[in-house]
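Holo model, 4'-deoxy-4'-aminopyridoxal-5'-phosphate. Inputs:
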Amino acid sequence: MSIQEKVPVAAEAPTRRKGYVWVNGEMKPADQAVVSVFDHGLLYGDGVFDTMFATHGYIFKFQEHLERFRRSLRATRMSLPIPESDLEQVILDTVAANGLREAYIKVVATRGESPEPLLDPRNTVPTLIVFVRPYLSLAGAGKRETGLSTKITATQRVGHAALDPRVKNLNYLNLVMAKFEAINANADEALLLDEDGFVCEAPGYNLFAVRNGVVITPDRGVLEGITRETVIEICGELGIPCTIGSIAPFDLFVAEEAFLSSTAAGLIPVTKVDGALIADGRPGPVWKRIDAAYDEMQRSGRHGTPIPA
Ligand code: PMP
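Output:
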């Protein structure tokens, strides 16, 4: 079983979560880790984050995740309460403290607490949180086998002129609202349009379509997903044509295949859009080849940073 097949069994009461959380310089038991109710991350979504995973004893593409996190910090003028050069070690220490070999790793930086008036972004004391959880697939049980049914939602992705989606930021409310639209339509996942009416992302996932044997992923208005980059890399290695372009709803309706990519779920086929089957409604061969190569890449430790003992 690959790590992406792990699905929730029973919810742990949030206040009883086990493990350790690094917060503002201290490693705390998870149920004692706190931040202020006046934190800008909570009050305004004024923060950025990154999500990574570890499997087979390695953190996958750790440096790539760190670089993306630094870009998010830079683009939002966010600072850390520690020197940026210490961040890598803090994350490694938190992974080690939690003793998990297969883990979901999250690093969150917020503008923190400010003097009043509260919305003023100046003179704040920034917050940094690192936590590690057992890895559980975002996609849910059995979805790798059946594929996801999706709904193209009325809720659009926030446009780059409002808030660039390349910043991995804490403003997920529009993604949550899109998810509710999908739930109300009895679909597994939402697909959001960009301002030009092209399909860009699902909540927490990048999107791929396969048309005429070519793998396509949107060129803009999306997060620079690490898994997306990995799919492009794998296509190169396997000699599968891959282009960065645009995906209209039309392209999905007539696609041979479609799939989503995410750190928190791996590669998940999409087999239905707005009630219509994609091709024969089953996960396709191109997805299968790329997924197998992704699994092999994780097992091999290639692109992996060893988890410290
Ligand atoms: N798009 C959005 C909006 C996301 O939140 C995520 C995952 N956090 C992705 C795409 C996938 O990115 P990655 O492959 O780096 O997990």
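The two ends are 24 Å apart (CA to CA). The first strand starts at residue 20 and ends at 23.
Archived with the compound record.
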